[in-house]
Amino acid sequence: MTLASPNAKKPRTNKRVHNSAQKRQPDPGVLLAWYDKHARVLPWRARKGEKSDPYRVWLSETMLQQTTVKTVAPYFAKFLRQWPTIEALAKAKLDDVLRAWAGLGYYARARNLHACAQTVVARHGGLFPTHEDVLAGLPGIGAYTAGMIASIAFARPVVAVDGNIERVISRLFRVEQPLPAAKPEIRRLTNSISPQSRHGDFAQAMMDLGATICTPKSPACVLCPWSEPCAARKRGDQETFPRKTPKKEGALRRGAAFVALREDGYVLLRTRAEKGLLGAMSEVPGSDWSADFNLDQGRKAAPQLGALDWQRRAGAVMHVFTHFPLELTVFAASVPKKTAAPDGMRWIKLADLAGEALPNVMRKVIAHGLLNFGVEAFELPARKTKNR
Ligand code: SF4
């Protein structure tokens, strides 16, 4: 969303805004002064006096969706090492990009990242468009990422609102309306306190404030530059904002997964269909995932490797996707050396598993299955959502 011009009529004040906040608006200058002293040093962030690199901003913003700075940092470094420019990324094989992305989750983003690099090179000569509306037309770039790139890399007067900013604004103004219905109002309030210049710094300052001070639990209000005008702090109910509409959980889906370990240290994998959930990622063979899963039926999805003693591992692997939780029963079997892989499957050396495009759920499944043989496959990367 583009900011109003300095002469534009101020929007009407929302009736839900607490009176004290109406009297004392949070001053963007105070936040920027705080940012000048306390800005986080991040690998993709330009230092004072440097120009922001749109490629780095786009790459980091894409990686940071739903993931923390700590998790993203090594992935960001790896991508830059492997593909230092957008042209290099555009030329990369999709499989290599998915492999490098493995562990970051939400794999559609990796496919879109690759498609976006190719589009920017093919249609824009390798230069990112500067306007948020044009950016938002590129693969995988939503309104928020377009706003961040436009404001940080091109100094466009754009307000980009994510979960961090929603939290800060809803507390500052005690926005009673629950999310997601409150989004337009939060955007309007963000707009109302945005500066006339330094738009990129303001966006990053809001992000830093949300990530380091105005955290979901126990916000450090005594250190907050906006503690004085904050309506929720005055009432002492900061942690109850933003208000949220209770989520309807998707129904639990269940399924079976089969970890076959060949005697010479190879694990059986296959590649998922290109389209759909975890598209084109690697997985161990298994059944469909469904709410009415039946274990006897699930056992029939075992790969055809001859007469094997499939042992059911105790417990199950749990994983939560955006729309549903999943419970997988894991079976493990030892397979004689020289056993051929069934059609559409392949044997992968244990030592090469970490380099496979395996989603986290499959990493958990393989780790769980291999424990049957006393083998540790790999460590799972820490992932967290929201507060980055
Ligand atoms: S005073 Fe506390 S609740 Fe209010 S914006 Fe600052 S950190 Fe958040």
Write a brief structural summary.
It contains 15 helices and 7 strands. It is α+β, with helices and mostly antiparallel strands and 388 residues long. Iron/sulfur cluster binds at residues 168, 171-172, 213-214, 219, 221, 224, 226-227, 230, 232-233, 238.
CATH domain class name of the largest domain:
Mainly Alpha
Q: What would you call the quaternary organization?
A: single chain
Strand content: 5-15%
Q: Please tally the helical runs, counting DSSP H or I stretches of 4 or more residues.
A: 15
CATH architecture of the largest domain: Orthogonal Bundle
Helical content stands at: 25-40%
Q: Describe the main β-sheet briefly.
A: 7 strands, mixed
Classify the fold: give the CATH topology of the largest domain.
Endonuclease III, domain 1
Q: How far do the termini sit from each other?
A: 22 Å
Helix-strand topology string: HHHHHHHHHHHHHEEEHEEEEH
Question: What's the alpha carbon Rg, rounded to whole Å?
Answer: 24 Å
Hetero groups: iron/sulfur cluster
Q: Into how many domains do the coordinates divide?
A: 2
Q: What coarse outline follows from CA principal-axis ratios? A: globular
Would you count the extended β strands for me?
7
